[in-house]
Predict the structure of UDP-N-acetyl glucosamine 2-epimerase.
Amino acid sequence: MKILTVIGARPQFVKASVVSRAILELTQDQPGQVTETILHTGQHFDSNMSQLFFDQLGIPTPKINLNIHSSSHGQMTGQMLIEIEKHLLQEKPDWVLVYGDTNSTLAGALAAAKLHIPIAHVEAGLRSFNKSMPEEINRVMTDHVASSLLCPTEAAMKNLEREALSNKSLLVGDVMYDAFLYAKKKSEQHSSVEIEGLDAGFILATLHRAENTDSLERLKDILMGLNQINLKKRVLLPLHPRTKKQISHFGLEDLLKDILVSPPLGYIEMVQLLSLCECVITDSGGLQKEAYFAKKPCLTVRDETEWIETVDAGWNHLVSASSHQIISQYDALDTPNEWKPLYGHGDAGATIVRHLLDGQK
């Protein structure tokens, strides 16, 4: 069986590493039973945003790198679609494997669908129900052209049932929980990440969503909120290249002077920081969930979330992009007494590979 995996954004590297390891582990007695070719679109091109993740997580080196980045959604997706199609015709895979909800996801799925190649969508069925988010468009369209929808949660399965897609849906658990457990184990074997001026009990913050960074008002308000919280508890902000660019564009550099800012960090370093922090403030789809894995309360600076289970469980709280709201929600934040394994038991990768193998019989 030949799999072509399409990835391009930082979270996808983490997710893909889980399935790549599962392929090696499940086929070690039958070398060559499954071959995986990784196509990297180049959507995240910064060294710390890309190569570091491949190195840390043991992801096989991508055979193909399209180097497509830094353009509009339409231009980027269109260029990816053209180039991915060329490589699909050359590689002739049995499955195209796509992850999540990025432009790379949609381009890979559309290219494969046009060529009638089966598509497996990992992290299928997520919905924010906000069509103004590019990610929502990407995930909905990918689900509707994919052949196999591999869902992380019961809520995702129910979303697909409402869209009459139950016949190709499967609950596999969340590959991100597999990745978190792997990275946690590896982090215990490495020296702890050291950032000057940082003591345990800090607040880990990230910020990169277009709806927050492309608006001067929203970006300024969020940074002002982080500054006020920083007066009470140290805030660490690993700064996404896109956010850094927008802060400079809007002339908001002064709002970073007191916050502890670092370059983007590797996944293992982020897992280490999660174990040391008091709580998380983010607009990331991945980090709000990883905060749950690490049993840390989280403020998610968005109007909605795909990971509604974390909100229902009391660990995650949605907050508007208002400095006042961010500060008041932080002041009211506490740690729930109960934690449940909402995302499986760390075997999603193996379940996915077995499913793909069964699909070839």
